[in-house]
Design goal:
By secondary structure, this protein is an all-beta fold. It has no helices and 17 strands. It folds into 2 domains: about 120 residues, no CATH class; about 80 residues, no CATH class. The protein is globular, with a radius of gyration of 17 Å.
């Protein structure tokens, strides 16, 4: 894993030397470390926080626990944030598991928490990958994104980055495309039908 500065200077952040492990993807960045997924042939994939050349597991280095696991993770972070939000499997991991959850981490094991989750019919989250900017947005450590929370209909989901409380706003049953999000000086602007109740930016 490398860090490349604005002037092109390349620095090695982490080198994986174990023959049974491979760096799979970077999920996001916190002040406490780079959040990444390492694929391990013997135990599956694990989430780690990489800092100072050391990879610290965020799921106790095992798939049989209530910490995030598997290689399905998509995450989002911004340079102004101290948190990374990501979606991966919910609680106990099984090979055929399809339940997913929204997780948050500050780059430490103690600060890695499940926000909410459930079966595919009651929970889904779109737009948490940095490959698609504008499909989710941050207000500081708060997060807005498109998904489902307890109902088989599209929702605008707001997560409070201070207490991880979740608020949902209806954006219309049957919406099949991701709404477009943009950060503004006072909150979030998005395209949806019908319009959700407005929610102002807080904490900035």
């Amino acid at each position: 894993m490398y860090k490349v500065s604005d002037n092109g200077t390349k620095t090695v952040l982490y080198t994986e030397t174990a023959p049974n492990k491979n760096l799979l993807k970077i999920v996001g960045v916190t002040p406490n470390g780079v959040i990444a997924i390492i694929a391990t042939t013997s135990t599956g994939s694990e989430y780690v926080s990489i800092s100072g050349g050391i990879a610290t597991p965020l799921n106790f280095n095992t798939v049989a626990n209530s910490r995030p696991c598997a290689s399905v993770g998509l995450g989002t972070s911004r340079t102004t944030n101290s948190l990374v939000y990501f979606v991966t499997l919910d609680t106990l991991y099984t090979v055929n598991s399809s339940n997913k959850a929204l997780w948050v981490t500050d780059g430490t094991l103690a600060g890695t928490k499940k926000v909410f989750g459930g079966t595919p019919t009651t929970f889904a989250a779109d737009g948490l990958t940095p490959q698609f900017p504008g499909s989710s947005e941050h207000c500081g450590n708060d997060l807005y994104f498109n998904g489902k929370n307890g109902a088989n209909a599209e929702r605008l989901i707001y997560v409070n980055g201070s207490n991880y409380n979740v608020t949902t706003y209806s954006i219309g049953s049957g919406v099949t495309t991701q709404p477009s999000f943009r950060k503004t000086a006072s909150g979030i602007t998005l395209i949806a039908l019908p319009l959700p109740t407005s929610s102002a930016e807080s904490g900035l």
